[in-house]
Specification:
heterodimer, A: 242 residues, alpha+beta, Thrombin, subunit H, 6-stranded antiparallel beta barrel, 4 helices, elongated, B: 222 residues, mainly alpha, 3-stranded antiparallel beta sheet, 72% helix, rod-shaped
């Protein structure tokens, strides 16, 4: 067999094999079953509804009644865990009895109160559980133009929600806090003090504590709250009055 | 060109010479040609053979002419190509059959799924309408819960307030009793101190009464 013959045969074989690489493949096996992954989970996320139809933010928000020495006032707080509540210092001041009420009308008595002079913040502890939904504290303070939501009991009335925009840092109008506070356009009333301020992700970014005549509200930023929670030595037990 | 391999003995008949075809592969192949014939100018190299029997044997195994060799080569190539094409065609036929079968299965599945989708779409529409009703009911229920919680909280506020007010009235009453006792023993006190006590008790009790009046006004306004 001549070299030319061998070359021709080899070329023919190579061409034939090269053609195999372009051949269509056989169809693969069809899937026998397909279970799609759920695209939404109704029970998760800060805005998720509980079985009773209330949002997580509503469930963690608590009404505070301060039965003081010859007066009675109301405010708002929010649950950090099952037995810890955050509110304002001026909400619990001069208290004879401190009573809490959850969104669904459950009454709980406060067992101990601690406050600080660093900011208008107080920590209330309870023996009975505040519920099963707690605040998710943001890591960073909100910045100017951030949209925030305030949930509370204005004027001691129904649980309600208002929205606003962060205006930026401002000096403390009550001069009760160390450092700056944040001003927002969220309209609050007496009784809203201690309300959680939530960002668009439903995380707590501040605590309402004051308002001015221009319908602006002032909040203690979450960085101050986080500092207080980390340095418990800054919190002093609040004695019972009367 | 022809070259004898061995010397020829004297007096012996000069044997016939045969050309040897040497292919390019190098192996000698014999081919019968005339002794006097000149070497060919084309084709394979020709060499001379020695004996007639060898020449005859060589003749029997003589190679095919170049045209026949080429033809055999092409036949081989065409055979290989034909086999390859046949294999290719068979493979394509098998693959086509498999794809067609799967296509048929998929069409059946699509038809079934279309029916299921229509049924599911109808169920989704029904469930959406039910969901809207349930959502409205849920909103109403949550609003009702909030209202009840608010009413309960306000009632408890009033209870706490009225309890405090009752305590204030009781303190007012005790202050009045103390003042009456002081007035009954007025000789023991100065007139100024009795007057001051009277003003303080009146101020306190008036404040309690004002608070109660304000409370009644607030309740009536609601």
């Amino acid at each position: 067999m001549s070299r030319r013959t061998v070359a021709a045969l080899a070329t023919a074989c190579v061409l034939a094999l090269a053609g195999c690489s372009l051949l269509p493949a056989a169809p693969g096996d069809l899937p026998t079953g397909f279970v799609p992954a759920p695209s939404v989970s109704p029970g998760q996320g800060p805005g998720a509804l509980s079985p009773d139809g209330f949002t997580a933010a509503q469930r963690m928000t608590v009404r505070v009644r301060n039965v003081g020495c010859g007066f009675l006032s109301t405010g708002t707080g929010f649950a950090l865990d099952a037995h810890t509540l955050v509110t304002n210092r001026h909400v619990i001041e001069d208290s004879k009895t401190l009573q809490l009420q959850t969104y669904d009308g459950r009454f709980i008595s406060a067992t101990a109160v601690a406050s600080t002079t660093v900011a208008d913040i107080a920590i209330v502890t309870t023996e009975e559980s505040l519920g099963a939904t707690f605040a998710q504290v943001a890591r960073e303070d909100p910045v100017e133009s951030d949209v925030v939501t305030v949930i509370g009991y204005p004027k001691g009335g129904r649980l309600s929600t208002v929205a606003g925009v962060v205006l930026g840092a401002a000096p403390d109008p009550l001069k009760s806090a160390v450092g700056t506070v944040l001003a927002t356009t969220a309209v609050v009333e007496n009784g809203s003090s201690g309300s959680p301020v939530l960002n668009e992700d439903g995380m707590v970014v501040g605590v309402v504590y004051a308002k001015n005549d221009y319908s602006q509200s002032f909040i203690v930023p979450v960085s101050t709250l986080a500092t207080l929670l980390e340095q418990t030595s800054l919190l002093v037990p609040e004695p019972a009055r009367c | 060109m022809s070259t004898p391999d061995e010397p020829t003995p004297r007096g012996q008949r000069q044997p016939a010479t045969f050309p040897v075809v040497v292919p390019k592969s190098g192996l000698p192949v014999f081919a019968p040609v005339a002794a006097s014939s000149a070497p060919r100018s084309e084709g394979p190299t020709v060499a001379e053979a020695h004996t007639a029997p060898d020449a005859l044997a060589a003749y029997e195994h003589s190679p095919a002419p170049p045209t026949r060799t080429h033809a055999r080569v092409w036949v081989g190539v065409l055979t290989v190509a034909s086999l390859a094409l046949a294999t290719f065609a068979a493979y394509l036929w098998v693959i086509n059959t498999q794809w067609q079968q799967q296509n048929d299965e998929l069409r059946v599945s699509v038809a079934e799924l279309e029916g299921k989708v229509e049924s599911s779409a109808a169920q989704v529409a029904d469930l959406q309408s039910e969901l809207l009703v349930a959502q409205a009911n849920l909103d109403g229920a949550t609003g009702r819960v909030t209202d009840l919680a608010d009413t309960s909280a306000n009632a408890r506020d009033q209870v706490a307030f009225l309890t405090e007010l009752a305590d204030s009235f009781q303190q007012c009453s005790q202050a009045q009793e103390t003042r009456i006792a002081h007035l009954q023993d007025a000789s023991s006190y100065t007139a100024a101190s009795l007057a001051a006590e009277g003003r303080d008790v009146k101020k306190y009790c008036d404040g309690v009464i004002d608070t109660y009046t304000e409370f009644l006004t607030t309740v009536e306004s609601h």
